[in-house]
Design a protein that fits this description.
The complex is a heterodimer of chains A (287) and B (331). Chain A is an all-alpha fold. Chain A is built from 13 helices and no strands. Chain B has helices spanning 53-60, 88-94, 116-127, 133-145, 162-174, 192-209, 220-226, 244-249, 254-261, 302-306, and strands spanning 11-22, 25-37, 42-46, 69-78, 81-82, 99-102, 180-184, 212-217, 229-234, 237-243, 312-315, 318-320. In chain B, the strands form two sheets. Chain B has an eight-stranded mixed sheet, with helices on both faces. The longest helix of chain B has 18 residues, at 192-209. The chains are: A mainly alpha (287), B alpha/beta (331). The interface between A and B is medium-sized, with 29 and 39 residues.
Chain lengths: 287, 331
């Protein structure tokens, strides 16, 4: 319908305008954009290959030749971080998108329809929550086999209940408002009410949760890689580098500091974006 | 209630009962309500909080949450079709298209993240056959009709005052020229001056669009301004039904009389006290036997407490559910 296009345009346009005024969010976007560029052009940027070993340079501190030092196999940490950004960003974004979309849909449907639907869906979520996440992820990824995509699916599925619960709670608070009743009295279909009235009004906390979850997903993927179920060495990945650096925490702390910083910068940037988005999606913030 | 005229009414509610099954018992919100509205006419449904006015309106649109709500019995014929037998698709095209509703609180009844033009457009594209630019044109027309400059269509609800928002609500409700407009306490949340404007607007547009009106309110003044007929509701049923003039001239049911006594008028003595109806509405989970008003009624006799009277026509067109109408209140 033509009216839908107009609707979509104006809402996103205003969101964008409001987002541009939020310097922190803009900074976050710039950082994430840079990280994506780095990931895309990793081969050109990285000074060394991710698995090039130099046995004369084992666990050396940062120097002119190796800006961020070398690891226990004499591999350049900077190069590994650059290559690692590919995996970590993909896992972070795609895994969270999987849980956001599926969990959000389940939560919205459960919250909106209530009653039996709610009970059945949320009890399934409870059952999943009762299984330790790490165990569930291990089961899923060992069933699917190692590999990047399977890793993302495993991480995504394990985080579905968190999003479902949050979305449901948020939907419940919006559902009671009079404009929902007004929409029903207007003759709108359930689908339309959920998509046009409930979702946009209840998505804010879920978006913030999503940006926070990206960090979790990156670390969770690292845990799985550590167990041999995710990314196979020698391909680098931030979480994996972090856990590999643990024995050298005392003598060569830079080995864990730099991957840690990389994760931290990503997450701070995402949080800034998340915060900005939350404000920008609310038209009352419009100045 | 018998037909007051020969032609079939637009809306004919018969013996409607709505209850809510809650943990603390069954709440009898509407008990055997009879109500009819004729084409182009306006009916004021008056009663205090909890009398079941809004429940009746929501039941008519089949918007009672179920569970806990339940339409226990009755029939609601709208334009010849029983609303209770409609399919979900039929209901959806009736809601908004044939029966539209104006809500009590304009602060919360508009979607905060859609511009007001989008919300009017939403209604139009749901129910009229219009497409593309025609929809927008119609939306602008509606805005002009209710006195909002079309340029403001791109603003969000929070940028409007309460009165302006209620105008938006009216524009949305009337956009598809419904046969019946339900206004659920449309002025309760507004300032007195704005109330007058909104009342005028509803009255004028009702003529322009030629729609019937069901005005739900507890404000007898507004009813007097707009309505042709008045129905007084108490504890889930009608206690008095009459055309406007006879009812205001001679309220017969003790409850109606009590309502009028509770309204300050220009004739009342300075420093004089208003008469209060003693007691509270009966607990809807435990309604009294017989007449629902009997526990508070100064005229109540033994018979009132065992069997309700039922509607009786005391004057032509003036129906009262009371054995002893015209009981004089001690002031």
């Amino acid at each position: 319908m033509a009216s839908n296009i107009i609707k979509g345009n104006s809402m996103w346009k205003y969101t964008l305008i409001r987002l541009r005024r939020n310097y922190l969010a803009v900074a976050g976007f710039v950082v994430i954009a840079l990280l994506i560029l780095v990931a895309v052009f990793a081969e050109r940027i990285a000074p060394y290959g991710y698995s090039d070993q130099d046995y004369m340079m084992i666990r050396k501190s940062p120097s002119a030749a190796h800006w961020l030092g070398t690891d226990e196999f004499g591999r350049d940490v900077l190069s590994r971080l650059i290559y690692g950004s590919r995996i970590s960003l993909q896992v972070g974004f795609i895994a969270v998108s999987i849980s956001l979309v599926i969990g959000g849909a389940i939560g919205a449907v459960a919250g909106y329809f209530g009653g039996k639907t709610d009970n059945i869906l949320m009890r399934i979520m409870d059952v999943q929550l009762a299984i330790p996440t790490i165990l569930l992820a291990i089961v899923i990824s060992s069933a699917l086999g190692p590999g990047l995509f399977n890793l993302m699916v495993a991480v995504g599925i394990t985080h579905i209940p968190n999003f479902a619960r949050l979305m449901r709670a948020s939907v419940l608070s919006v559902k009671g408002m009079e404009f929902i009743e007004a929409a029903r009295a207007m003759g709108a279909t359930h689908k339309r009410i959920i998509l046009m009235y409930i979702m946009p009004n209840s998505i804010a906390p879920v978006i913030v949760q999503a940006t926070l979850s990206v960090a979790n997903a990156i670390l969770f993927a690292a845990t799985l890689s550590f167990l041999g179920l995710g990314i196979q060495p020698p391909y680098p990945e931030w979480g994996g580098m972090l856990s590999a650096a643990r024995p050298y925490l005392r003598g060569n702390s830079y080995l864990s500091i730099f991957p840690g910083l990389a994760i931290m910068i990503t997450i701070v940037a995402l949080n800034c974006i998340g915060d900005g988005l939350r404000d920008a999606l609310d038209p009352k913030q419009k100045r | 209630m018998p037909d007051l005229t020969n032609n079939a009414p637009l809306l004919d509610i018969r013996d409607l009962a709505v209850q809510f099954n809650t943990d603390s018992g069954v709440v009898h919100a509407v008990n055997g309500l009879n109500l009819s509205i004729h084409r182009g006419k306006s009916l004021g449904l008056v009663g205090e909080t909890g009398a079941g006015k809004t429940t009746t309106a929501l039941a008519l649109l089949r918007l009672i949450q179920s569970p806990p709500g339940e339409i226990k019995s009755g029939s609601m014929f709208f334009d010849g079709t029983d609303v209770l037998k409609m399919t979900e698709t039929e209901l959806r095209s009736m809601r908004g298209g044939r029966i539209a509703m104006i809500f009590q609180d304009p602060m919360t009844s508009l979607n905060p993240i859609m511009t007001i033009e989008e919300q009017i457009v939403e209604m139009i594209s749901l129910h009229s056959g219009l497409r593309g630019n025609e929809v927008t044109t119609r939306a602008r027309e509606m805005m002009t009709l209710v006195g909002i400059r079309p340029e403001r269509g791109r603003d969000y609800p929070h940028q409007f005052s309460g009165g302006m928002r209620q105008r938006v609500g009216i524009a949305i409700a009337l956009a598809c020229e419904p046969a019946l407009l339900i206004a659920d306490e449309p002025t309760t949340a507004l300032d007195v001056t704005i109330q007058a404007q909104v009342v005028d607007l509803i009255r004028n547009l009702q003529k322009v669009v030629n729609t019937s009106l069901l005005l739900i309110t507890h404000d007898l003044g507004i009813v007097a301004e707009i309505c042709d007929d008045v129905a007084i509701m108490y504890a889930g049923r009608l206690v008095e039904y009459a055309p406007l003039r006879p009812l205001y001239k001679r309220p017969m049911h003790p409850y109606t009389q009590g309502l009028f006594n509770a309204v300050p008028s220009l004739d009342s003595e300075p420093g004089g006290r208003l008469t209060v109806i003693q007691g509270l509405m009966p607990d809807p989970t435990d309604l009294p036997q017989g007449c629902g008003f009997s526990p508070r009624c100064p005229a109540a006799q033994d018979i009132c407490r065992s069997v309700a009277c039922g509607m009786k026509e005391y004057e032509p067109g003036h129906f009262v559910d009371c054995y002893f109408p015209n009981h004089a209140w001690e002031v």
